[in-house]
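Record type: monomer structure entry
Structure origin: computed from sequence
Chain ID: A
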Amino acid sequence: MSDLSKLQKRQYTDWLKLKTKPNGELYSENTVSSYVSSLSTAPTRLTGIELPTTNIFEITSAKQFKEMRLLMEGAENFEQVNIKAGNKAFQYALAYYEEFLLEQNGRYDLLEVGSTTESMITNHAALNDKNIILYGPPGTGKTYNTIAYAVAIIENKALQTVLQEVSSGGYDAVLTRYRHYKENGQIEFTTFHQSYGYEEFIEGIKPKMLPDSDDQSNDQITYEIKAGVFKQFCERALTPVIQDSNTYGIRQDPTIWKVSLGGSGDNPVKRDCFSHNRIRIGWDSYGERITEETDFRDHGGKTILSRFINEMVIGDIVLALHDEKTIDAIGVVIGDYEWLDEMDDYKRSRKVKWLAKDIRENIYHLNGNKVMTLGSVYRLNRITLADVLLIMKKQNTSLSTAIQENGNNYVFIIDEINRGNISKIFGELITLIEPTKRMGQKEEIKLRLPYSQEDFGVPGNVFILATMNTADRSITRLDTALRRRFHFAEMMPRPEILRELVTDEGTIELSEMLDVINRRIEVLYDREHMIGHAYFMSLSAHSSLDKLGYVFRKTLIPLLQEYFYEDYDKIRLVLGDNNKSKEDQFIHVKQMDLNGLFGDLNGYDLDEEVSYEINEEAFTRIEAYRKIYRNR
């Protein structure tokens, strides 16, 4: 960051401190405006760059500045503000200041290497933060902006750089990179809801139908411990990177299988498999093809054969049994099921590429302190690809030189995080996601998972990026444990980015209209229920009045009905209907003749003597929209 930018930020920090008195009350506008004006007219300090002096008090509310003041009050100077205080203090106002500097200087990078303190204070939370929640009213672009955040994190770029690329017309290019990273496994997206639980997120016991029967009456159900989407994602982030992985044929998220090749120890079947790059199992008496009519009652093996023939796929990993605690070979499945008619026994086969042979590796601890049973083929659910690759590196095989530590960043996106039961979903993971408790940190913590009994920790290269709609649930009511572990980036409506709408009937100032609507909502309800600018982004500069009417009819008015629980008097105030002629009112008030409707009420008191109805004609009248912001 240039010396000029550093100086400007210090001056802005001084301005924030001046903005509030020690007791949290606001200084007068004249006092602060005079100070801002003095900054802007000091060429030796700002070299001709003029700080904004108008509408400066619209940036944040008095409550927000009070919060900032309280956080910063304990610091002797700006350099001593810690990362949490810094992020909280600046997330409200720094976005405005950065936009101003972008216009003046062309570029303002808060993440430039060289200043630890400056890298902490960023626009909408630092990308150094491992856990970020974008929160705000509906339609403010929270989910939309997760794309820019995710790309910036993965590419180790300043967030403002990617946002600037998006705003300058490069959204498609950023979206293409986002999709590439998602296909590459570096981005995962999920949405929380009321039924979402620990079993889907971390791990659980799931039923599985055996695929060897088309007759539903004979279907067999087994149960397996299944890793949830976040656990799988963390395992992916831990997996070492294999240079030119296509050479080795390992698929993404492979299943790890234990196979017994003719039994334990050394034997002729195993020697043949090592020599001819294959694995073999028996039960030859059933014949080449297993059908519904195959009778397994005498010799068993139905489940094992189903695993070998149907469930094992190309790209999976096989570990060859040596004894109950040790393996002696590692291979990658590269072929489909075959029947070796020329062999005397163990005729069922699959081609493999052996990555290591004639080794001795004890995997008892990796397998959760469980011995390997006599079953010929089964999944080793406790062992991951990362574990296998570390064994390869330890064995110093030819593959070990191609194995490198995974230095890539991974972004797990949770949409609508506040709609789920946080305690139920995260469970013990709520502690593990803390940056200081991540793997590789001094305070690293691993916990024993309840189902698999595996030791589990969250890698340091995993970032959690979530969105939260404040209209659904206020941030103040969010789970306290979650709030302590996330940094929050507020995303409010930005009416200033909307263009004016030029129709055949005339021009409508969309930005001013939305601004007025939101100011009224803030007074009548609160700022968490404003209307986002995204609802109007589909309107081009020359859209028809019908398109604007569609937005009002299908989105805006239903939202207001939900917000105000069909209190139509307040909805009319938001839409300015109280200052319009009847034909321009979106909602008409009709007096009800209760006596004519019910006759003699016998003293029964009915509260409502009016009814309300939507005026469809207003959606086609330009003055109905103009008078929202003109007749105030």
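Annotation 1: Residues 1-8, 17-63, 68-127, 212-217 have pLDDT under 50 and may be disordered.
Annotation 2: The first helix runs from residue 3 to 19.
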